[in-house]
């Protein structure tokens, strides 16, 4: 692993990102403005040994500040990172399998094609986090705030129980920030009691998912696959179900506002 060290680059990146976020309508489409082949997004300025040493030296109540650090490609699997600040960090293609990130702030972090398989992110904050193409199978987001872009990510059997993935309508200057799961694999995932209002899940695979008691009000679900999903108590008010697969649904008779969903007549049903 080549180690990249450049405080100047980090400062410039921070300034650029701040400018992007301030632009109206920028929302979560950040990649068009960034050179993802640059060292800032492909290399690391610290090693795993550096981070382990810093963690070992923390005193009670202290936090390790890795905000805006380049940590791309690092093997951080299995580490306890609960006392680390990862806001705006760059973790592209990093390995965080089985890592403990409970309560960690990952707002505005970059983690494209990263591996969080089996990681724990309970009550973590992922606002404007870029996780496109990431591996998150079995990851635990229970109670987390997830307004992240997880398009094309693998989230098989992930746990979003009581998580908040809904649109943040208080930051309209930045566009509509919400959970984005376009074409993501969410098969077997649990969204029990989760807030999914206005979430974007177009063409996502939700087969066998547990959506019991979730709030899908106004969500974008066109082309999504709900085959075998449990939708007991799920609120579908004004959710767009155009071309969605609604086959072999569990407890469909107990869903809320199902008849008030948009384009229900265009969905594939039993």
How far apart lie the N and C ends? 52 Å
Question: In oligomeric terms, what are we looking at?
Answer: single chain
Poorly predicted runs: 1-12, 14-28
Summed over residues and divided by their number, the pLDDT gives a mean of 90
User: Largest sheet at a glance?
Assistant: 2 strands, parallel
Structural class by sheet pairing and helices: little secondary structure
How many DSSP helices? 3
Strand order of the largest sheet: 1-2
DSSP strand content: 5-15%
- From N to C, what is the helix and strand string? HHHEEEEEE
Helix content: 10-25%
How many β-strand stretches?
6
**What is the molecular shape?**
elongated
* Rg value: 19 Å
Describe the model.
The chain has 270 residues and is largely without helices or strands. The protein has helices at 7-22, 39-42, 48-56; strands at residues 64-65, 84-85, 125-130, 145-149, 245-246, 268-269. The protein has 3 helices and 6 strands, in the order H-H-H-E-E-E-E-E-E. The strands form 3 sheets. Strands 1-2 form a two-stranded parallel sheet. A two-stranded parallel sheet has the order 3-4. Mean pLDDT is 90; it is low at 1-12 and 14-28.
